[in-house]
């Protein structure tokens, strides 16, 4: 155990989930080569190979399968012990850590106030979640619940209340050809580049926020990519493409003179949902979801 690094164990656990070095690196916010380095170090400490590497994928060796079966519950117990110690250090009360994407609209603000009245011994801490990684903060236990843009199709996450169903609008530069229009159709999106989302977000989620085809199947060109809302607004202002956002975000950003918001017809409404992790969700996270519902 001398010198054993928790990061090596985390790299192995994530790789065992993904069976792909690139995706494991995205979830850990490190390069693919760093994942390989951490795995080699762990294998060196143990003295046996844990993963068989191929040109495109990875798979666990029989020894790796046995090690995973013992490590996963032990690692979960370790994280649970840290969480219990953190709660005990805060006294009889606690903190509900809520991550959110976009802006805090009236419905979310009302739910937060209602939760604090319902659970007066718990304070709420708010953390903005980047567009690039909607689910990572929950999996890393940086937050207890998260308010994210839909859809959510992750098997390890629980989707509670959904809310804030709103029309989508297109953020563009005042110099953009759409800037003077009262509205545009979803089919017209094929005429100009659309700003995409980069990072660890699943492909289905990225396509929902920045579709690559119109409803009739016409290709939408990809412009620059952003990892945060503010980065996307900056790219739109610089003329790198249009960015789809919900109406609440447009209202919140409406004071910017560098961006124009144009309603889009023919697209599904944007919506938010509150989620928590299936294995380590807290009663407070569920109470907050009930408050939103």
Automatic annotation (TrEMBL):
SUPFAM superfamilies: Periplasmic binding protein-like II, Winged helix' DNA-binding domain. It comes from the Bacteria. Residues 4-61 form the HTH lysR-type domain. The keyword DNA-binding applies. Signal peptide: none annotated. InterPro entries: LysR_HTH_N (IPR000847), LysR_subst-bd (IPR005119), WH-like_DNA-bd_sf (IPR036388), WH_DNA-bd_sf (IPR036390). Keywords: DNA-binding, Transcription, Transcription regulation. Belongs to the LysR transcriptional regulatory family. This is LysR family transcriptional regulator.
């Amino acid at each position: 155990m001398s010198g054993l690094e928790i990061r090596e164990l985390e790299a192995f656990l994530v790789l065992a989930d993904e069976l792909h070095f690139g995706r494991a690196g995205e979830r850990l916010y490190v390069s693919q080569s760093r994942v390989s380095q951490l795995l080699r170090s762990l294998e060196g400490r143990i003295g046996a190979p844990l993963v068989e590497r191929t040109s495109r994928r990875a798979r666990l060796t029989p020894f790796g399968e046995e090690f995973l079966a013992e490590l996963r519950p032990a690692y979960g117990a370790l994280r649970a012990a840290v969480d219990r110690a953190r709660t005990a250090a805060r006294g009889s009360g606690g903190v509900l850590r809520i991550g959110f994407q976009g802006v805090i609209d009236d419905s979310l603000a009302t739910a937060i106030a209602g939760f604090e009245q319902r659970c007066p011994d718990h304070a709420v801490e708010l953390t903005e979640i980047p567009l690039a990684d909607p689910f990572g903060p929950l999996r890393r236990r940086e937050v207890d619940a998260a308010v994210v843009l839909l859809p959510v199709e992750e098997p390890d996450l629980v989707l509670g209340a959904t809310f804030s169903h709103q029309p989508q609008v297109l953020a563009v530069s005042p110099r953009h050809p759409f800037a003077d229009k009262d509205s545009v159709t979803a089919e017209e999106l094929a005429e100009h580049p659309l700003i995409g989302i980069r990072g660890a977000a699943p492909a289905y989620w990225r396509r929902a926020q920045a579709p690559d085809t119109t409803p009739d199947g016409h290709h939408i060109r990809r412009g620059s990519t952003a990892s945060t809302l503010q980065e996307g607004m900056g790219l739109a202002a610089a003329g790198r493409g249009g960015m789809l956002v919900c109406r609440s975000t447009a209202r919140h950003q409406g004071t910017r003179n560098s961006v124009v918001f144009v309603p889009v017809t023919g697209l599904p409404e944007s919506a938010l949902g509150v989620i928590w992790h299936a294995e380590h969700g807290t009663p407070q996270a569920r109470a907050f979801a009930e408050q939103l519902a």
